[in-house]
């Protein structure tokens, strides 16, 4: 669950990848959500 973890949102941002926790249409920023 760190920077290099591609399963988490932070890891996806760090690795520049996309997936379930970080979809490409990242306009879903109405409120902060913790999964």
Automatic annotation (TrEMBL):
<feature type="compositionally biased region" description="Basic residues">
    <location>
        <begin position="1"/>
        <end position="12"/>
    </location>
</feature>
<keyword id="KW-0689">Ribosomal protein</keyword>
<dbReference type="GO" id="GO:0005840">
    <property type="term" value="C:ribosome"/>
</dbReference>
<dbReference type="InterPro" id="IPR030826">
    <property type="entry name" value="Ribosomal_bTHX/bTHXc/bTHXm"/>
</dbReference>
<dbReference type="GO" id="GO:1990904">
    <property type="term" value="C:ribonucleoprotein complex"/>
</dbReference>
<keyword id="KW-0687">Ribonucleoprotein</keyword>
<protein>
    <recommendedName>
        <fullName>30S ribosomal protein THX</fullName>
    </recommendedName>
</protein>
<feature type="compositionally biased region" description="Basic residues">
    <location>
        <begin position="24"/>
        <end position="35"/>
    </location>
</feature>
<feature type="region of interest" description="Disordered">
    <location>
        <begin position="1"/>
        <end position="35"/>
    </location>
</feature>
<comment type="similarity">
    <text>Belongs to the bacterial ribosomal protein bTHX family.</text>
</comment>
């Amino acid at each position: 669950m760190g920077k290099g973890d591609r399963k988490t949102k932070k890891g996806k941002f760090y690795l520049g990848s996309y997936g379930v926790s970080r979809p490409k249409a990242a306009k879903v920023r109405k409120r902060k959500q913790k999964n």
